[in-house]
Write the structure tokens for this entry.
Amino acid sequence: MPFKEGDFIEIEYTAKNDEDGALLATTNPETAKASDAYDEHVKYGPVLVVLGSNAVVRGLEKELEKMNPGESKTFVLEAEEAFGRRDESLVRVMKESEFKAHNLKPYPGMRVNIDNAPATVKSTGSGRVVIDMNHPDSGKRIRYEVKVSRKIEKEEEKIAKLVDTYGLNPTSIKNDREGAEVFFDNKVRKDSDYFINKASSLAAIFTYMKDIKRIVVKEEYINEAAGKQEETMQKDSVRPSDE
């Protein structure tokens, strides 16, 4: 049966410019390689979509809502239903010195953040930088090839998938009437990105899983240096017996 808002599904997809067939995005590594667009830093494979979360363009979400697990579909979205029509008022000219003040050397194609909004550098010259704050794929008709891999039903897996969206891999997850428990053992690197992504993932759980009222996060820290020091002390205490 069709999906509804709030459902967790995994999809595989390929998006191309319908006019020239240029690849825009894909979850399939072989498709990326065939288009000479493979990126070793990209994690390929099915991706999570929470329907109603605006994680994908509205036209794609509308099509997903009408699909079933295991179903594949190909369709074309007009610009309005994809990344919007181009707005020439979003093309601006800035002084190159504004970039240099932030230790940036602009070049065509460079992605920057202007007034908390993403933008693309279109050209540079004569001390001026032309930036475009339209989405890079705005104004395009987009052809999608989509497969709904499955619907995620288990609460623990929903939590795991949301946390994974922020690049974290919990050691274990429990969920019951008392709430959810997420555990990260000592093998999980706890740097600044970890703490930022942890906070973001917890906010996502509360946003998209309304039934969860309480989350306990457990973290393991082991003083590796102390363990090595103790091991060294034990070795030093062993002395050959006098004969």
